[in-house]
Amino acid sequence: MDVSPILDKLNQQQRMAVSAPTRPILVLAGAGSGKTRVLVHRIAWLVEVEGLSPMSILAVTFTNKAASEMRGRIQELLNMQVGGLWVGTFHGLAHRLLRMHWREANLPQTFQILDSEDQLRMVKRIMKALDMDENRWPPRQLVGFINARKDDGSRPQHLDDRGDPALRQMIRVYSAYEETCQRNGVVDFAELLLRSLELLRDNKELQAHYRNRFRHILVDEFQDTNALQYAWLRLISGDRTPVFAVGDDDQSIYGWRGAKIENIRNFTRHFPDCETIRLEQNYRSTETILKAANSLIDHNRGRLGKNLWTDGQEGEPILVYAAYNEIDEARYIAGRIRQWVDDDGLRSAVAVLYRSNAQSRVFESTFNENRIPYRVYGGLRFFERAEIKDALAYLRLTINPADDASFERIVNHPPRQIGERTVDLLRQIARTENRSLWEVAREAVDSGEFTPRAASAIGHFIQLIERMAQDIHGIPLAEQVEAVVSLSRLKDHFRAREKGEQGQARVDNLNELISAARSYVQVQVEEMPDMDELSAFLSHAALEAGEGQGEAGEDCVQMMTLHSAKGLEFPLVFLCGLEEGLFPHQMSVDEPGRLEEERRLCYVGITRAEQLLVISYAEQRQLHGQTRFNAPSRFLRELPPELLEEVRPKVQTWQTSHHASGSRNTPKRSPHAFAQTESGYNIGQSVRHEKFGEGVILNAEGSGSHARVEVNFQQAGRKWLVLAFARLEKC
Which of 17, 183, 444, 710 is the most buried (most CB within 10 A)? Predict the structure, then answer.
C-alpha cells in the first residue's frame, strides 16, 4: 500500500509518531511542533494502513473548535465522509453516550444541559430553601465545591464531613442539588462526564460493547486532563485498547481548575509497553525565542524533557522595557504598536498578554486615547449573553417543562406581574411535594392559594409556553427560534428598557440567534437518530458556551490573559507585568508546585511569539487599589542575558570598584553627582517618604511626568520612584 500521501510533508519525528505500532504511545509535542497534524495523520494511518474502521476510533480534544477542525482535516485527508467518527470534547462525547443510553443512565429522554449561570441560580434557590445566608455561604463557592467533588468522582453519599459543621452543610447543599437536578431532568457539565463514567462502570454489558467497539483512542492536550477525565479514558480503554496521547508537560497550566500534571508524567507507568516520541522541531518561533523558552523551563524539576529547536532564522533579540509605572508601560506598548502598523504590520498580528485580568484596564484606556482598536479576547461570548440565555430558556421550556432553571429565569421576564413572593411560594410547594415548578404552576391557577392577579399572571405564562410548543411543532429550526423570540416579546422588552445602542445591540444579538439556527447543521450520527433538531441545537449552544473568540471585527490588537493565549500564536507579542508578586503570582511564590506552574505559564507566553517578543515590567504599579513596588520577576533572571536587549538603558551613577575579593558595584559620585534634577532635587540630597522613611537620592533620569529618582532608604533599601507620585519631602 502506498503510504506516501499520509507521510509526505512530515518530519522524521512526526513520521515516527504517525506510523508507530498500535500500542500505547506518548507523544511529547512541544509548542508549535505540529501536534494537530500528527493526530490527524495518525487517524488516517490507522484507517488506510492498519485497516481500522473510522467508527472504531475515538478521538478526544478539549475544545469544540479543535474537534471541528480535526474532523474536517480527517475528511479531507481520507477523501470520505466521516459523520460517524467519534471526535469531540470530553463533555461532547459524554453527552453523546448519555443521549444514546438515557434509560440506562436514569435520565429523561429530553434531559437538558444546565450551564454555569443556571447552576448558580439553582444553588441560590436551594440555599434559600435551607435558610442559608449568602454572605456567610458564597453561592459560587458552593458551586465550586459541587463541581470539584464531581470532578473527583464523588457523590454526596461518598463524602465524610469529618465532624466539620461547615463541610456538613456543604454536603447537604450538594445532596439537595442532586435531588433537584434529577427531579428537573437536567445535568450540569461535570455531571455529563461523571454520569457517563458511572454508566460504563456499572453496566458491564455497555462497558464490554464500547471496549470492543473502540480499537484505538487518541487524546489531545493530555496534560490538561483532570482525575475524572483520566478515569473515563482508562475505563473505556480497558486493558486492550491502545491510547495515543499527545501533550506537553511544559504547557500544563490549568492545575487551578483540576488538571493533573501527574497524568502525563505517569502515563508510561499506567500504560505498560508504552513508547515515548518527542516532537521538538518548532515551526513557529525564531531561534532566539526558543532558546529563551528552553532556558526558562529548564528551571523546573521533574520534567519529561525536551528541547525546542528550529531550522529557521535566529531572529531579533528579546526586548525588555523597565517602565516607571503601569501607565508608562502601556504608553510604551502603544507606541510600539503604532510603529508596527506604520511598518505595514496588522494590528491583529499583535497580542498583549498579562497575568491578571485587572491589568487590562490601563491598556484599554491607553489604547482608546491613542485610537488603537483592540479586542479583549475571552470577553462575554455569544451564548453567554443575557438576552441569548433568555431566548434559549424559552426554547428549553417548550421541550422540557420540568426544567426549573429555565422556568425561574423567564417566568417574570419580561415582567408579567409575577412577583418574587409568588415564585417563592411556588418553590416551597414544589420542594415539599417533590415536583417541578411547572407542575405546581399549572395547578396554582385554580388552587386558591394565590391572589387572583398572581393566578391570572401564572395562567397566562403557562398558556404562552404551551402556545409556543404548539406553534413550533414540525417547522424548520430557524422558524422555531424566530417564533419563540417573537412570542416572548424579548425584543420589545430590551428596546424599552435599554434605549439607544445597548438596547439595539441586544436586539441584534437575538436576530443573530435566529441566524445561528438557520446556519446550524445537526451532526447526524447513527447512534442518535431520534434526537430532534431543536434539542440538538440547544445542546450545541450549551456545549459551545464559553468557547470561541466572539465576533470577528476590524483589524485590532488582541488582549488576553496568559491562560487564554494557550494554543494561539502571533508575530508580535508583548509579555507584560513581569514582577515578583504579580508574575509569578504572590500566592505561588512559596509553593514549589505552584511556582513551577507559573513558570510553565511564562513558557507558554514566550512561545506564543513568532517573530518579536517584548517583555515589560513596572517598578511601581497601581493594581487592585494598592501601590506596589515589586522587584523584576525571577523569570527575567532565568533568561540568558545575551538574548535580551534593554530598550531604555538607565543613567549610570555607579562606578565599578575592584577589590582583592572580587568586583562589586559601589556607589560613587559621578561628575554630575550633585546636578539638580528637572524637578528641583539634587543627587545626594536627603529626602523623606511617608512609607519608606528617610533616604538619599542616588540617581535621577527622565523628564516631565516621566521624571524619577533612585533613593537609598535607611530601612527599605534602594527604590526607584516616579516624582509625580512619590511626594518626597526635602530634609
Answer: 17
Q: Is the dihedral of CA 469, 470, 476, 478 positive or negative?
A: negative
Is residue 608 flagged as an active site residue? yes
Does residue 221 have an active-site annotation? yes
Catalytic pick from 14, 89, 180, 251?
A: 251
Q: Which CATH architecture has domain 382-544?
A: Orthogonal Bundle (1.10)
Q: Please identify which residue in the block is written with the cell numbers 423567564.
A: 410
CA distances from 89 to 59, 130, 218, 261, 384 (A): 8, 36, 12, 19, 19
Give the fold, CATH level 3, of 4-102+193-281: Rossmann fold (3.40.50)
Residue pLDDT, tens place only, 442-461:
888 777 778 888 889 999 99
pLDDT in tens, 480-526: 999 999 999 999 888 877 766 667 778 888 888 887 787 776 655 55
Fold agreement between 112-184 and 297-381+551-646:
no
* Grid cell at residue 610: 513568532
- The reply to whether 115 belongs to the active site is no
297-381+551-646, CATH topology level: Rossmann fold (3.40.50)
Name the CATH code of domain 112-184 (choices 1.10.150.130, 1.20.120.160, 3.40.50.1000, 1.10.10.160). 1.10.10.160
Indicate the pTM of the whole model: 0.77
Q: Is residue 548 predicted with pLDDT exceeding 50?
A: no
Closest CA to 238 of 200, 189, 265: 200
Q: Is 35 in the active site?
A: yes
